[in-house]
């Protein structure tokens, strides 16, 4: 019999939000605090923007060795390193960053910001707004371009005029593409993983179902729940959103091979028990609600839905033609969320692109996170061999 491990829900009371908040352990975070408002693409502005970020390695005197790593929807700045105070999970690309790894921190200065609108230290719905209370549902709508503008200000503050490499997958790939199109002189090399040039109708539909689940939760309160106290956040809605999303992140083949039609150990679905795949999704939901914020999830998903690199630039082909960076485009062969046809469009439109390269994985969209040996080889290809000793 094909057995899967039991998945247990973490114990203890749930906070209203899993966001990092002032007074929590800082961990490895640093902050860039802008002294000026950030204008937004949809109109209006954000005052007092803060971006949390982490760095590894040392910036060269000529500032030529900086690499920007951009996280996906529920990621954060903690790309590498163990879990611990301030960091509820270990680094999400830990195998890629460090001495001797693809992003060799003896050679490269790696920078990873928490995205604007996120919930792990950067300005977002859980942050204190102008009235002295959390922004909540009053947080303005963002686009990928707003987020890149904030990251550009971080680069300015660090004295980085040009990135040796910008790399991102999924939502991070969308921002990496916006960097290369909107700031073409600031990106020397570009690695786009499992992302599109424009959000497709099906992707917007999946996202809409997730946002709908959160907003239907009676504890949503129009997004104003952050000070409601333990157990009173929209946990059920966020958990449902995570279940929906996670189905799109993994392949049908993997789910079948891991879980099949088997009931969870000790449970009988005929009498209200769960199947193993349901237990797995429950586990993923329970983990996320402890480390993420529902309003940030809505903000970021809606920003992803606006993704269209050709908006206001004469269309997709004209926009992709602005990329000057040496570019690799890669997709996951089993990805059903952002299928290979979308990476083919990117590779065909970017003048210097080589690809699409294929990341072979049974894991679906999450292959860009899990297949670190294959992704690391692409990073090394762009950055070149180490300098002679």
What does this entry look like structurally?
The protein has 11 helices and 10 strands. Helix 3 packs antiparallel against helix 4 and helix 3 packs antiparallel against helix 7. The chain has one domain: Rossmann fold (3-Layer(aba) Sandwich). The N terminus is likely disordered. The longest helix is centred in the middle third of the chain and has 16 residues. The protein is globular. It has an 8-stranded mixed β-sheet, sandwiched between helices. It is α/β, with parallel strands linked by helices and 389 residues long.
CATH class: Alpha Beta
Order of neighbouring strands in the sheet with most strands? 1-4-6-5-7-8-9-10
CATH-derived architecture: 3-Layer(aba) Sandwich
Element order: H for helix, E for strand: EEEEEEHEHEHHHHHHEHEHH
Tell how many strands the DSSP assignment holds.
Answer: 10
The number of domains is: 1
Shape: globular
Helix content: 25-40%
CATH superfamily: Alpha/Beta hydrolase fold, catalytic domain
Estimated share of beta-strand residues? 5-15%
CA radius of gyration is: 20 Å
CATH structural fold name: Rossmann fold
Largest β-sheet summary: 8 strands, mixed
Mean pLDDT across residues: 95
Which key terms come to mind for this protein?
globular; 11 helices; 389 residues; alpha/beta; 8-stranded mixed β-sheet; single chain; two-stranded antiparallel ribbon; Rossmann fold
